[in-house]
Amino acid sequence: MLVRDAVLSALVLAIGLFPVPLLPLPLGHIGWTIGLACWTALLVHACWRWPVATLLATAPVFAGVNFWAAAVLPVITFAAARRIAPARRLWLAVLATAVVDFALMLAFESAQFNGFGEVVAGYAVSAVLLLVLPAAVGALLGHRRPRVRLLQERNEYLERAQQLTAAKARVEERGHIAGEMHDMLGHRLSLISIHAGALELSAAKDAPELSGQAVLLRTTASSALSELREILGVLRGAEESDLGPDDRIGTRTDVEDLVAESRSAGIDVDLRWTGADLDHADPRTRRAVHRVVREGLTNVHKHASTARTGVEIVVESDRVHVRVVNGPAQAGGRRLPGTRSGLVGLDERISLLDGNLHSGPTPEGGFLVAAAIPTHPAGTDRPDPSVLPDQPPPEPLAAEALTWPRVLGAGCLGMLAVLPVVIGLVMLVVALVIG
User: Fold this and answer.
1) Same domain as 410, residue 330
2) Residue 310 pLDDT level (bands cut at 50, 70, 90)
3) Residues 196 and 271 in one domain
4) Among candidates 72, 58, 84, which has minimal Cα distance to 141?
5) 355: which residues sit within 8 A by CB, 6+ positions away?
6) Can you tell me the distance from the alpha carbon of 180 to that of 183, in angstroms, rounded to the nearest whole number?
């Protein structure tokens, strides 16, 4: 700011002092010329802070004898007019400046008074070129700035309101889906759990050999209810830490329970755990470990229920390695069709944690599901659509942005004010060179 003011003031001072060494000025005019040049340079510095006072203070330069200093007045008037608001205040200041200019001009030219009509005509042309038109251009651009800023604020407000409305609609839709799932699936799973409990009691009395299958059916239905509540909590925006039953998911105790359930269902499965427990691991990592083990054992139940199975978990400082591998299924064992959709979903979840999953047949004829998962993955599982907008908002309109119509309109009006002054200066220089 200070550097800009100093440079502009020095430039205006140089323009105002231009005729002193080049023109044969009378001795009395030299002092006036230097004084008006210095006064004009001070006005350049003051127009940013005191625009009204600066506009009124241009009267001595307007009516003075330094034509070169007066040539800078359109720029000073333009800069001051941009900072005067409202419009009534600006034009009152312009009117007061015009009256003072006219009075000073009459006082300066009283000694060489050639006719009141000529003085008024000359003053009118000068006032229009040096005062009125620059003030109009400054008012046009200066009053546009707050309006553009207001439009920018309204645009940002509307964008935020639109994003919040879209987020609210997503949350409501997810809540609706959660309600439908709770009403339909929750009721059916509750009935299955109740009937499985009753079947467990009957089997314990009448068919002890089926008691284990009945217990498995009841515990599976109970687990399905718990997982349904977990999914409903995610749909309703609940945090993982608020889900309660997840506190022990993926720990050694949880994995041992999964293996015990499979043993009770008739699967020959062993667990080998190496390293520390996962109590302090990231909840997303523990959840992924649980799902890898569960998915691997589920596939064994469906496709190789008679095969020997091993679950291996190796906990390192920064990663957890999980393996569920089974041998070849014996002939005559039951085998259910599969779609691999569970493995696909598991692969997507682990990839989001910067881990990797491998699944496929082994050379011995069995099947392997292996995963390597970071203990403390960075970031989040996935972006929350209720928070992030569908697409980034457009760049806000800059407060100083000009459209082409504004540029052309303001430029033409400014040229109308500056061009006569430039032509006058050129003619004066030509006359001096020829003379």
Assistant:
1) no
2) very high
3) no
4) 84
5) 288, 319, 371, 372, 373, 374, 377
6) 5
